[in-house]
Structure formats: structure tokens, C-alpha cells
Amino acid sequence: MKYLLFLVLAIHALLGCESRQVAAEDQAVEITKERLDYALAIHGGAGVIRRKNMTEEYEAEVREILAKALEIGENTLKSGQPAEQAVIAVISYLEDMPQFNAGKGAVFTYEGTNELDASIMRGKDLSAGAVSGVTGVKHPIQLAQKVMDESVHVMLSGIGAQQFAEEQGLEIVDPSYFHTERRHESWKKARAKADAKPQLSENGKFGTVGCVAMDQAGHLAAGTSTGGMTLKRWGRIGDAPVIGAGTYADDRSCAVSATGHGEYFIRYAVAHDVAARMLHGNKTLAQAGDEVIQQELKKAGGDGGIISVDRTGNIHMPFNTLGMYRGFVTPTNRGVAIFDDETF
Ligand code: ASP
Predict the structure, then answer these.
(1) Are 65 and 340 in contact (CB under 8 A)?
(2) Is the C-beta atom of 132 inside 6 A of ligand 1?
(3) What is the pLDDT of residue 6?
């Protein structure tokens, strides 16, 4: 079992960017029907992530944060809590980390504000919650969970979402809390250009965060949180809070969290498409993910990737960019990676 999982992860990591040219069938790995006790995967965004553009200190810092996030998620699952609790714990932690484009450290809109999007979905009963354009809620993922469990709605936005957060007793912060110098500098540079238009964070890095998990009872959950695109305007909403695009979970197939150029992920209903290919097309997790990310999306010009876990605890993390901050943990194995040539 342990070796099979390792094989799945190692093959995909080894193939790296070359795997993007390979047909999904060639990457397919026979998976066991035996279920792991728990499994969890995380991402911190995909994009033009090159070693030469990153200092050793920064790389070490980010790897440490990803490892810590995995530890938080694993402890939550080991204590017997449901998958969505692990997702919330992991994403809340990452929302506090200014290195990522979610919560504190979110990118700036055209007007120089931070507008946050997040969503969560539970695979057991297909319940879901999402928020978009919130400016004063410290942990948007926790608000998404409140929408899922404490409201009769699926998606709330802007001022109304914030009012609901207050009613639910969530931590409210001054919008300046989300301001970080690094993102502000990027914003200033981007804004100064004559053709200032929305872009996917600095140097093509995305920086959104996400988590998928399978708990000890075998249930799945997925969540995603982001500041969206630098210079986004007119209340632009990306894929992260759109159920079926940036986030999806169904115990019958898999849980998926995406990162990338949101407009493509919405149009191709990426997260749901992966689940649907498993459910209706009998594809494995790896086949379904590769078809969507390496074929459909790539053909269309949509940059990005996903993390995914199926109901037996297999993990697949395909991306069609130069890198994706990512990591996974199971009872027998764990790993963190950034670049496309990394093995676990
Ligand atoms: N998907 C996000 C968006 O388009 C961006 C990202 O993944 O970093 O808003």
C-alpha cells in the first residue's frame, strides 16, 4: 500500500514538466481499493516559479510553512475530526502567512484594496459555502464554513457577507490588516504601467491556498482561499469561491482545490470536471486530473493546477505551470515540493 502510494506520487513528480506532453493513459497508475486511514494535500499557488528567481532563505521559509500546514492538517485528522475541520485548520493557518495570496498577504485590487474569496465543500452531503469580495474578515475560509453550516445559502458576497460574519461572531479586522509591503510594491509597479490590467500576482506566481482531505471515516472535503488577481476590478470574482470551478468534493469520487487563471477554471468547471470524469467515466484520480489539467485546460491556454484526493486516499497534484507550492501527508508518507522537477 505504502509503496503504491509512493509510486503514484513519485511517478508524477519524476515526470515533472515532461509529463505534460504525455497522454493521460501513460501516466495512469493502478490504484488499490484498500483505503488509507487518512490523506491530505495542500497547495500554495502555481505559476512561473523558478529556482533562480527565489532566494534560498525564501524557499526554506515557504517549505517550512507548507510542512507546518501539513502537520496541522494531519493532527486534526489523527484526532478523528472530520475532513472539513482539517481543511479549515490548514487554510486558516495559511491565511495568516503573508507569503501567500490569501488572508494577510492578499494581492491588491486596481483601487488598492484587498478583496478576499474563499469556499469549502463537504463530500458527504455535497454541502458547500463560499464568500467573495470580503474586506474585513480575518479568516475567509471560516466564513465560508459558516455559510455552509449556518445559513440556507451557498455563496455570500461583499458587505452582506461581512454582516453575516459579524453575526456569527467571526474575527473582524480593519481592512489595513491585509496590507503587506511586498504586495503593495507589486501593486504600485503593476499600476504604474500604461496598460495596467489584471495579472496573476508577481512574476506570474498565483499564491492562492487550498487543501483537500480524506478523514478517518472516509469522508472528503476541499477548500480554497485567495486574494484573486492583482489589479482585479469591478468586483471581479475568480474561481476560488465558485463551487465546481475552484473547489469541489463528492465522496463518490474525489475532493479538488484549484489554483490558476480563474477565468479558465470557471469556464471549464475544472474541479467538477475532474470529479465527473471519475464518477461517470470510470477514470482514476490521476487520469481524470491529467485529462483536465494537462489536456483540456492546457489546450485552452489556462495556466494552473489542482490538488486532489480520492475516497481511498490516493493523491494527485497535476499542474501545467513551471511550479506549484504543494505538499501531502498520509499515515505512511509525506512531502513538500515547489518546482516541477522535484520528487517526493
Ligand atoms: N485562481 C485564483 C483567481 O483566479 C488565482 C490563483 O489561483 O492564484 O482568482
Answers:
(1) no
(2) no
(3) 42
pLDDT at position 51: 85
Segments of the chain assigned E as strands: 39-47, 116-122, 127-134, 155-157, 209-214, 220-226, 247-249, 254-260, 304-310, 315-316, 323-329, 334-339
Ligand 1 closest atom vs CA 260: 7
C-beta 313 within 6 A of ligand 1: no
Distance (Å) from CA 238 to ligand 1 centroid: 6
Asked whether 45 lines ligand 1 (CB < 6 A), one says: yes
**Shortest CA distance to 254 belongs to which of 152, 101, 121, 147?**
121
Q: What's the one-letter identity of residue 268?
A: Y
Could you tell me the distance, in angstroms and rounded to a whole number, from the CA of residue 202 to the centre of ligand 1? Answer: 12
Please list the active-site residues: 208
pLDDT in tens, 156-192: 999 999 999 999 999 999 999 998 888 888 888 888 7
> Which of 261, 267, 268, 321 best tests ligand 1's pocket when mutated (most atoms within 8 Å of CB)?
261
What is the rounded CA–CA span in Å between residue 306 and residue 326? Answer: 10
* Ligand 1 binding pocket includes 305 (Cβ within 6 Å): no
Q: Which residues pair with 46 in a beta bridge?
A: 324
pTM comes to 0.90
Residue 198 Cβ < 6 Å to ligand 1: no
Share above pLDDT 90 across residues of the chain, in percent, rounded to a whole number:
77
List all residues 6 or more positions away from 299 whose beta carbon is below 8 Å from its beta carbon: none
Q: What is the mean pLDDT of the chain?
A: 89
Q: What is the pLDDT of residues 23-39, one digit of tens each?
A: 333 333 335 568 999 99
- Which residue's CA lies nearest to atom 4 of ligand 1? 262
Residue spans of the chain under pLDDT 70: 1-33, 194-206
